[in-house]
Design goal:
- The complex is a heterodimer.
- Chain A is of the alpha/beta class.
- Chain A has a single domain, classed as TPP-binding domain (Rossmann fold, 3-Layer(aba) Sandwich), CATH 3.40.50.1220.
- Helix content of chain A is about 35%, strand content about 15%.
- Chain A contains four helices and six strands.
- The longest helix of chain A has 16 residues.
- In chain B, helix 25 packs antiparallel against helix 26.
- Chain B starts with a strand and ends with a strand.
- Among the domains of chain B are: about 170 residues, Up-down Bundle (Substrate Binding Domain Of Dnak, Chain:A, Domain 2), CATH 1.20.1270.30; about 240 residues, Rossmann fold.
- By secondary structure, chain B is α/β, with parallel strands linked by helices.
- Chain B is about 45% helix and about 15% strand.
- In chain B, the strands form seven sheets. Chain B has an eight-stranded mixed beta sheet, with helices on both faces.
- Classes of the chains: A alpha/beta, B alpha/beta.
- At the A-B interface, helix 2 and helix 3 of A face helix 13 and helix 25 of B.
Chain lengths: ~140, ~775
């Protein structure tokens, strides 16, 4: 896919500060270093989500468990230091993340196969198969910790 | 003081009494009873701050910078301040106020235009008579402005007040003005309230001035949909929101007896108003169908007035051979004003040049009709050729390089490329499916490196694969007083589960059909569903297995299970109007100058919620913010968060003062948010019953609302709502049918019944 670190929807950026593209290896080390991580799982993650569901990390399924914006509001009150997102409507998540980007110290990491500029860290744009492989690798490295 | 005399006769076995009873009726100039007639920018700040303390602004900036003055650009990210001292939150609040001002100005100018035109036509003293069924003729104006309008001239006074306030509000967005987030938000709420006022002005003016329905319970059904338009006739297409040019066209057709010969149809709110004016008008569809219909080449003459019109309309019309008439000073399109010419001369000029501006609207009728007859003759054969045939679509598709950028620039990330790839093999189902979900913004085409006419390809497939013939009920305007009397108590005590108002544009995440499905689910559950603007058309664009639209299946009365089309987006005022009327007619709350008291009543008692599922415009954010100041919560779709600001509570207990208990008490967090968003239609549907809950709900009413909340959640998420315990105050709030299940759930959650229930809750203390 062209433009691995251009926002998947090219107009999704906010001008100055865009997410840093990271590899699965770095994502794993972030989780490893995290004191209190959270994984927010949406409905559109497809097959990739299957590899994360039994991960030993606190998880919230949105919108079933909580509205995404309520989650974000809750994150600003709680002391999560790393919040990961996967499977949420692209433009909706990207826009909602700007609240955490500007008004919170919590680090955000998106695990979708599309580059999401308003997170602090994001996977790059990937083809679907490549993304699933990346998530499998992410899972495997976490298990080997 | 004038008196109305009635002569009652009382019979009894042995006694016959006759007499006159005088009932005083208040004059227009009667003094308002409340504290805030014609509130200035800061007069209702105390109410706004009460709302904003509970529902704090939640910001999501779209840009890291401010670029509104030449100090900048200023980087406001990471806690930095701009050269004027502004920070990121302030900038967002300022931009929301700006958007609300734009939206309100748009409605105000539209309504000023209507009122001025009608005063010129009918005179300043023309009476505002909404018939015998409506005594509370303008509940918003009564409450906010504090007067009872009797003539068109009175509406002018109301507009003057709003225009003056709007100037102050807009000025607050200038560099170096307002410096507090909550004050910016209070001003945005003020703008929203003014928006509600001007919409009521405009709709009342056009209802009385153009003889539109005055709250009739069963207004007629009219044709809706692209395939309802008879292509074998000359077709005049009106786009926009201002009905005046359409009325001249319809009048001219009637005068010349040409109604059967020429089709008049519309897109967006002009279409809704045209059908309120004449039964012969037809509706193509909402805003989302604009580019598709123009591309189809069916229209011979395109008349544009104002708001939500594609700015490349001249270019698009030229491609199909249609001519364009611009009619409004807000949208001149670079065209020469031809108003000084005779109608015949205008026709010649437009035939030569393909377009013209006619600001003298009385000339539009003849010009549009005669042009349609001439242009039709010359492009009759061309009509069928404007869209590519299926074989051409296949050939075009084969030029696609499969770069995938059409998917990436699609605001909804629809699988455009995949549909084109299928078309290469002669399979058009995916293109046809896109037709139902796409709102034809055309960004895919702009991006395409092969310049494929993707919207035209989608349109052709859609027209061939779908019926596209629907029905919508003509907009009824205000809700009748008698309807309010019937439902007032059941709404206030919660026995009607809620009033749900579908409003706003068609920037849907997944097409119109989902809106209709939401309405269907709610109607089956006996909610009162009201729709206005593009949303009201969208609800008509779905048929059940019997081939019937929801408007054909459900009554048009404001009652449990009723589906009301209020009218165009101006008619959203009748939603807040109905809530106000409940306070006035059912609870006897005086309206004049009594904004905060009425809004407090609505917030605590009237289970109404707005759904702006496809909100796109600045008008939509003004409408939503207006609802919010009245205490009516709103849910926007996923694109709606690009407005940058929501009002969200923490979801913890609220505090209210109880007038009966004479103390502050803690209550359940209802309604939980003032404006929130949902990611998809099932989340939206499940949020509706929650936001319909009010502190004043009786146990029976609350149990019904809980029933819908739980059963919808189970239906769409296959589990109990995860926050249910917050909304069950005592065991009596648990619906009988679900008692065991809910009790088990509550036990797991460690729920305990509340010790106190509010009896007369208020925020005004």
């Amino acid at each position: 896919m062209l433009g691995r670190n251009i926002p998947y929807q090219p107009t999704a950026g906010t001008n100055l500060h865009h997410a840093e593209v990271i590899s699965t290896k770095i994502a794993v080390s972030m989780v490893k270093r995290s004191r209190r991580p959270l994984l927010v799982i949406g409905e559109y993650g497809g097959e990739a989500v299957r590899y994360l569901e039994d991960l030993n990390i606190e998880k919230i399924y949105t919108p079933r468990d909580m509205n995404l914006l309520s989650i974000i509001k809750m994150i600003t009150r709680e002391d999560y230091d790393l919040v990961m997102f996967i499977g949420i409507t692209y433009y909706y998540l990207n826009q909602a993340l700007t609240h955490l980007k500007h008004f919170s110290d919590t680090i955000t990491l998106t695990l979708d196969g599309k580059y999401i500029p308003n997170a602090h860290y994001s996977f790059p744009n990937m083809e679907e198969g490549e993304h699933i492989e990346a998530i499998k690798r992410f899972r495997m490295l976490l298990d080997n910790l | 003081m004038r008196v109305r005399r009635i002569v009652p006769t009382i019979y009894s076995k042995n006694l016959k009494v006759k007499g006159n009873i005088s009932i005083p009726t208040e004059d227009v100039s009667s003094k308002p009873t409340g504290p805030n007639p014609m509130p200035k920018v800061t007069d209702l700040r105390y109410w706004d701050f009460k709302l904003l303390r509970r529902y704090q602004p939640f910001y999501m900036p779209i840009c890291d910078m401010c670029c509104l003055c030449t100090f900048g650009k200023c980087d406001l990210s990471k806690g930095k301040k701009g050269a004027c001292g502004i920070d990121m939150k302030l900038q967002q609040a300022r931009l929301v106020l700006l958007a609300c001002c734009i939206g309100t100005a748009c409605h105000a100018a539209h309504c000023r235009h209507l009122v001025d035109a009608l005063i010129e036509k009918l005179g300043r003293d023309y009476p505002i008579d909404l018939g015998n069924s409506i005594e509370v003729e303008a509940p918003i104006i009564r409450t906010v402005v504090g007067i009872r309008v009797k003539t068109l001239g009175d509406l002018e006074k109301v507009l003057k007040y709003c225009e003056e306030q709007l100037t102050h509000l807009l000025s607050a967005t200038h560099t170096g003005q307002e410096g507090d987030v909550l004050d910016f938000e209070s001003k945005a709420l003020h703008a929203g309230m003014l928006d509600d006022v001007v919409r009521e002005v405009g709709d009342i003016a056009q209802i009385v001035g153009y003889g539109m329905p005055k709250g009739e319970i069963e207004t007629p059904l009219v044709d809706l949909g692209i395939n309802c338009i008879d292509r074998s006739k000359p077709v005049i297409l009106c786009i926009g929101h201002n009905v005046i040019p359409s009325t001249y066209i319809i009048d001219y057709l009637e005068e010349k007896g040409l109604e059967e010969e020429i089709e008049v149809c519309g897109i967006c709110c002009t279409a809704l108003d045209a059908t309120r004016y004449s039964k012969n008008a037809k509706i193509v569809g909402p805003l989302s169908r604009q580019l598709m219909f123009i591309r189809s080449g069916v229209a011979d003459v395109i008349v544009v007035d104002e708001q939500c019109i594609r700015l490349d309309i001249l270019e698009e019309a030229r491609r199909t051979g249609a001519v364009v008439i611009a009619t409004n000073d807000k949208m001149c399109l670079g065209l020469e004003d031809l108003s000084h010419l005779s109608e015949d001369e205008i026709i010649s000029r437009i035939l030569r040049e393909g377009a013209g501006l006619i600001l003298e609207e009385s000339k539009v009728g003849k010009v549009a009709v005669e042009l349609a007859r001439i242009v039709f003759r010359s492009r009759r054969e061309m009509k069928e050729r404007c869209l590519p045939a299926l074989e051409e679509i296949r050939a075009l598709a084969n030029r696609c390089t499969e770069c995938g950028w059409c998917n990436r620039v699609c605001p909804n990330s629809f699988p455009v490329m995949e549909s084109i790839v299928e078309a290469k093999e002669g399979r058009f189902e995916k293109l046809a499916d896109l037709y139902k979900r796409c709102y034809s913004c055309g960004r895919c085409e702009s991006e395409c490196e092969r310049n494929l006419p993707i919207v035209s390809m989608i349109t052709k497939a859609g027209e061939l694969y779908h019926t596209l013939e629907f029905k919508v009920r003509v907009g009824k305007g205000p809700i009748q007083d008698v309807e309010i009397r019937k439902v007032g108590a059941p709404i206030v005590f919660g026995e009607i589960p809620g009033v749900v108002a579908f409003a706003g544009c068609t920037n849907y995440p997944n097409g119109e059909e989902e809106l209709a499905l939401m309405a269907k689910e709610l109607l089956e559950r006996k909610y009162i569903v009201v729709a206005a603007g593009c949303a009201s058309m969208s609800i008509g664009m779905w048929k059940d297995s019997d081939g019937k639209t929801l408007y054909e299946k459900y009554p048009g009365e404001f009652q449990a299970g009723g589906l009301i089309n209020a009218g165009p987006c101006l008619s959203n005022c009748h939603v807040s109007g109905a809530a106000i009327k409940i306070a006035n007619i059912f609870a006897k709350l005086p309206l004049e100058g009594n904004f905060a008291q009425v809004a407090d009543y609505i917030l605590n008692r009237v289970g109404a919620v707005g759904v702006a599922w496809g909100a796109m415009s600045q008008k939509a954010v003004a409408i939503a913010t207006g609802f919010n100041r009245w205490g009516i919560p709103v849910i926007v779709g996923p694109h709606g968060i690009k407005y940058r600001r929501l009002y969200l509570s923490d979801g913890e207990d609220f505090e209210v003062y109880d007038r009966k208990l004479k103390k502050v008490i803690r209550i359940d967090p209802t309604p939980e948010h003032l404006i929130t968003a949902a990611e998809n239609f099932k989340e939206c549907l499940c949020t509706i019953p929650k936001l319909c809950m009010r502190p004043n709900d009786g146990s029976r009413g609350r149990s019904m609302k809980v029933y819908h909340y739980v059963t919808l959640y189970e239906k769409y998420f296959n589990c109990m709502p995860p926050d249910l315990e917050k909304f069950i105050r005592t065991e009596r709030d648990i619906p009988f049918m679900l008692k065991d299940k809910i009790l088990k759930y509550l036990e797991e959650k460690g729920w305990e019944p509340r010790k106190e229930m509010p009896q007369e809750p208020t925020l005004l203390y």
